[in-house]
Amino acid sequence: MARFNEGCYEGQGRGYRGKVTVQVTLSAERIESVKVTEQNEIRGIGWGLNTSPVETLPGLIVEYQSLNIPEVEGAELTSKAILDGAAAAIKASGAGKELIAELKAAPGPVPPKATDEERTVDLLICGAGAAGLAAAIEAKLSGAEVLIVEKQGITGGSTARSGGKILGAGTKWQKRQGIYDSPDMVYDYLMEVGDRRGDFMSPVKTRYVADHLNSTLDWLSSIQYSIKGDPEEVLAQPWQELTRPGRNEDGSLKKGSYTVQDVEPIHVSLQPWRVHNSPGGGGQTNGEGGEISVPLTLYYENDLGGEIVYNTALSELLTDGSGAVTGAVCKKAAGGTLTVHARKGVILATGGYGRNKEMCARYPTAHYFSTAPHGNVGDGLVAAEKIGARNFVHPGVQVVYTSLTCGIGINDESGLIVNEKGDRVVNEWTYQYTVGDALAASGSNCGWYITSGKEPYPGVKLGYKMAVAGKSKDPVAGSIEGLARKMGCDPERLQKTFDRYCELVEKGVDEDFGKPAEFLHPIEGPKYAALRLHPCITVTFGGLEIDVSARVLRPDGSFIPGLFAAGEVAGTGFYGTEYPTCGTSICGAMMFGRAAARTALGLEKI
Fold it and tell me: Are 531 and 394 in contact (CB under 8 A)?
């Protein structure tokens, strides 16, 4: 009796961004092919890499005739969606529960044995986000023997989960849109924002950043990368639209490249426009950062032959008798260790600590959520501090307060926002991180957007409608006092705040915080809603201190020989308590990643 009903069937699973459609072709006795035919997952996480789920899981299902395939670390939602979609397709063929259960229990890839290994290379790079990949490419192009160890099963780190924005200063893209800007203007802006609440900025490093923003953008735009795979299959995939690899005369795929889509005002209050969007980006979106991390990864792996050891995390740094770093011990997810001896040194690009609850507990955002990868728990900080590096505990983090039901708080919504005590603490029209910084500085673990649903913002209207209909947990009441009780704050205090705000609206002048008159929106009832704004941490500040050559410093200002760092792990001196503008982190990560590689190899500065 045949095991399967022959034919081609479709099924769906639910991924990070919705439905993932999987097509399974069956013969009488086996699974002949598995293809993802529709998906809207994030490039650089769900698809686009040599190791991402769309590229790897379908083939493994066929190879092992099994649905017992390990999920890709860092891309679990897409992995599960593909496996669920394949199961649903097989079920659609008429297969019973017993057969589906059998496939889910069938032997899959054999986990690697827990072994200890030892390697020697010129340069070890820990982390394959924007900083690590840029460092690896720079070193590889210089002829060095490079090894990257990456904690996840994919590259990209926080960059892949970001909006893919890069800061520029008087670039050719700005000029095309008639925007005047310069490195001096960017420097002045970064210093001004950084010193609003405390003197945390390094003028030397900030000057270096401002002067090298454009060369970093040009460097990224110069990279041309190859895509593996059959050209017919690659070009047939609708999600390759942004890549548009095309075909060479011999039928092979053309190389892809990074392009700047446009320059935008990330917030109407920030002038001039200097945030450069990756393809498909715009506004406060996440997931376009793969347009940066994918080109870097594919260029390093496919074109330069670079090596990445996945599912392996930094554990400790090795030093010689003089205190110089000579390598590192890394732990494999499968068990065992990889000890790497590095002739030229180690570059830390392990990301921040946004997923480390203990490290973030010092901030008022105790019950935060984070868009950072789960592996961002401060591994590099801990390892470097143990050998004498300075780990600066910064008094702030990049935090934005946003609604989990209607998404407000990250755009230009400018109504009345109060902290958890019921106090107004900021000009709500300012940049999202200015609002977040003020709420955090007031010691508030959340914000509340007070509305009667009549402001000219679609997100606010949606949130109000959901609250009134009982489709969200946001409180609704017929009076401000009643609303305060449901919010858990002092009714008298909130009423006083509300009455003062209404007074300012009527005057048309914000005497307290200087919000422009056109954004003083009346709140007139008859029902009032408080839309809860939850704190979200995306970038952490502080950490290791580096100089402009990306050398890691000790508390006394001397540098640790053989140890370099770039990206979020080394944010000391680059931020105040407020994130200055989108695009700062990614551009700085690539810039100092390249600087770290060049310093380690004894080359001239970028």
Answer: no
Strand-by-strand arrangement of the 7-15 sheet: 7-15, 18-26, 31-38
- CA distances to 1, 459, 473 from 413, rounded to whole Å, are 64, 8, 20
Mean per-residue pLDDT over the chain, rounded: 93
Angle between helices 130-141 and 584-600 (to 10 degrees): 30
- pLDDT at residue 528 tops 70: yes
CA–CA distance, 212 with 217 (Å, rounded to integer): 9
Looking at residue 396, its pLDDT comes to 81
Q: Which pLDDT tens digit goes with each residue over 330-377?
A: 999 999 999 999 999 999 999 999 999 888 888 776 567 788 888 999
The secondary structure of 183-219 as a DSSP string is: HHHHHHHHHHHHTTTS----HHHHHHHHHHHHHHHHH
In angstroms, the CA 560 to CA 596 distance is 13
Average pLDDT, integer, range 155-169: 94
What is the token pair recorded at 371? 């868009």
Does residue 147 sit in helix, strand or coil? strand
| Structure token digits, residue 327 | 């390598």
481 three-class SS: helix
- Asked if 65 and 58 count as a contact pair (C-beta separation under 8 A), the reply is no
Which residue in 221, 224, 244 sits closest to 172, CA to CA?
A: 221
Q: H/E element holding 36?
A: strand 31-38
CA gap 573, 190 in Å, rounded: 11
What pTM did the predictor assign?
0.94
Neighbours of 222 (CB within 10 A): 9
Find the radius of gyration of the CA atoms of the chain: 26
Q: Which of 282, 515, 486, 317 is nearest to 414 (CA)?
A: 515
CA angle, 337 then 343 then 347, to 5°: 70
Q: In the sheet where 542-544 sits, what is the strand order?
A: 391-392, 542-544, 570-571
CA–CA separation, 565 vs 86, rounded Å? Answer: 42
Q: Shortest CA distance to 412 belongs to which of 276, 292, 538, 521?
A: 521
pLDDT of residue 471: 95
* CA angle 562–568–574, rounded 5-degree value: 95
Three-class SS state of 74: coil
Average pLDDT over residues 102-124: 95
CA atoms lying within 13 Å on the CB side of residue 342:
35
Q: What per-residue confidence (pLDDT) applies to 367? A: 63
Tokens read off for 498: 């509300």
Give residue 196's pLDDT band: very low, low, confident or very high (50, 70, 90): confident
Candidate from 18-22, 392-396, 470-474 with smallest mean pLDDT:
392-396
Q: Residue 552 and residue 558: Cα distance in Å, rounded? A: 9
